[in-house]
Amino acid sequence: MSKAWQAHARHILDTVEKIDRIQQRGDLTRDEVLYDASLRNLQTLSEATQQLPETIKTQYPAIPWKQISGFRNILVHNYLGDIDAQTVLMVVQQHLPPLASAVRAMLAADPDGKA
């Protein structure tokens, strides 16, 4: 397996940290700049999860990988019109911490791509 997935995994963690910093600046449900910044970062995070090997993702069944990918498609193609800020906030607060934990565990288990 190539080492490339680790770069995507680190990008996911960097993006989670960036979204945390965005949240510290204010309420993304009331500030459209923070909301837009959060959406953009969720999009890049979702894209990066698609680059993680399926063989590794299956070891973390509690993470909704397909839904993360689907959320990216909604964000990029705007299938549902304007995305609800409360939904984005829920994703940020409830789903990013377990995703970050799983990605940290992936990197800890296979930091050099030798799996």
How is this structure best described in words?
The structure is a single chain. This protein is mainly alpha-helical and 115 residues long. It is built from five helices and no strands. The chain has one domain. 71% of the residues lie in helices and 0% in strands. The mean pLDDT is 88.
Q: Count the E strands.
A: 0
Counting helices, strands and paired strands, the structural category is mainly alpha
Proportion in β-strands: under 5%
Mean pLDDT: 88
Helix content: over 70%
Order of helices and strands: HHHHH
Uncertain stretches of 5 or more adjacent residues = none
Total DSSP helices: 5
How widely separated are the two ends? 7 Å
Major pleated sheet: none
Radius of gyration: 14 Å
Shape: globular
Query: How many domain modules?
Result: 1
Quick take:
The protein has five helices and no strands. By secondary structure, the protein is mostly helical. The chain starts with a helix and ends in a 6-residue tail after the last helix.
SSE layout:
Layout: H1 4-25, H2 32-49, H3 54-57, H4 65-77, H5 85-109
Helix pairs in contact: 1-2, 1-5, 2-4
List the keywords.
115 residues; single chain; mainly alpha; 0% strand
